[in-house]
Write a structure and sequence with these properties.
This protein is mostly helical. It is about 75% helix and about 0% strand.
């Protein structure tokens, strides 16, 4: 009789490790391109710089208004 591969046939350990490694690489690439390359972090830094400049301008304006009101 010929040997027929049955439904209980399993992958070899080498094949399992290769599949696990490929899945690990794919998941890492998804997270790398999904989160690290976003431009949102640069926008937050720009907004913080602009906010800091606005705060400095506001304090200068308050001082000038106070000086002009109280000579």
């Amino acid at each position: 009789m010929a040997h027929k591969p049955g439904p209980e046939r399993k992958l070899s350990m080498k094949s399992r490790l290769i599949i696990i490694a490929i899945m690990f690489v794919v998941i890492n690439l998804v997270f790398y391109f999904g989160f690290d390359s976003s431009d949102e972090s640069e926008n937050i830094v720009d907004l913080d710089d602009k906010t800091q400049l606005n705060i400095e301008k506001n304090t200068e304006l308050e001082q000038e208004i106070e000086i002009s009101i109280n000579p």
